[in-house]
Amino acid sequence: MVRHPSYYKLFVYLCVIYILYALVINLVVHPGAATFLSHKTDLSHELKPQIWLKVMYVHVAFGCLAMASGLVNFVSRNYEKHRKFHRVNGYFYTASVFLVVLSSGYMAPCATGGRVSSVGLNVLSMIWMAVTVIAIVHVRKKRIVQHRRWMVRSYAFCFTNLLIHLFSSVLHQSGVDYVNSYIIGLYGAIAVVLAAPAVIFRVQGKL
Ligand code: HEM
């Protein structure tokens, strides 16, 4: 696979900055998620804030661990030399994805935007787990190129939260109300995480 060094380095820096930002903002600066929770009105499921917050911490922690471990496996240049590490780290990534999906399953029924958001988030979770398992099946059958491609597809889902907040804050700043910004941001994020890998493969093929 051809790498364009400057884009590649920029991507690594952006991932590291986002991981640190997500950890600090959600676990240190706003550990009570008060603003986010204040928009949850009209819920069809009862929200228990203390449990929700604990699940959210697990969710954020493993989301960031998935991002970090995935990044490490993509950047490690000498794969042959660090084969065992790559494998262990890869299973750690898969376990982290599973825990993000599990915690997402708890939070989704109370998602901002109600049922329309819950359905999108649950579908996204199922696709993410399936894509990750497909990547593992490929490597177990020694199909390395397919493994790498499916792992790129899987890794794209790590950007869900970043994209939701990016789209929804632009929309909200432009005057759309918070809940509708969130719903549109969510479906925009789903479209990007599903489409981006195909675009990356096409661009890489031309480099
Ligand atoms: C891997 C990177 C991810 C990080 C760092 C992350 C982080 C967060 C954070 C901080 C929240 C709390 C609310 C907010 O500020 O948005 C949240 C909520 C949530 N996330 Fe994630 N997330 C990630 C990926 C995902 C993925 C891939 C899914 C689904 C497949 C997901 C499903 C959910 C759900 C269902 C909620 C609750 C939404 C709500 O209450 O409206 N997250 N996430």
UniProtKB/TrEMBL annotation:
Pfam families: DUF2306 (PF10067)
Protein's name according to its UniProt entry: Putative membrane protein DUF2306
Domain of life, source organism: Bacteria
Membrane among keywords: yes
Matching InterPro entries: DUF2306_membrane
Transmembrane segment boundaries: 12-36, 56-76, 88-107, 119-138, 150-170, 182-201
Keyword Membrane: yes
Alphabetized UniProt keyword annotations: Membrane, Transmembrane, Transmembrane helix
Lineage of origin: Bacteria, Bacillati, Bacillota, Bacilli, Bacillales
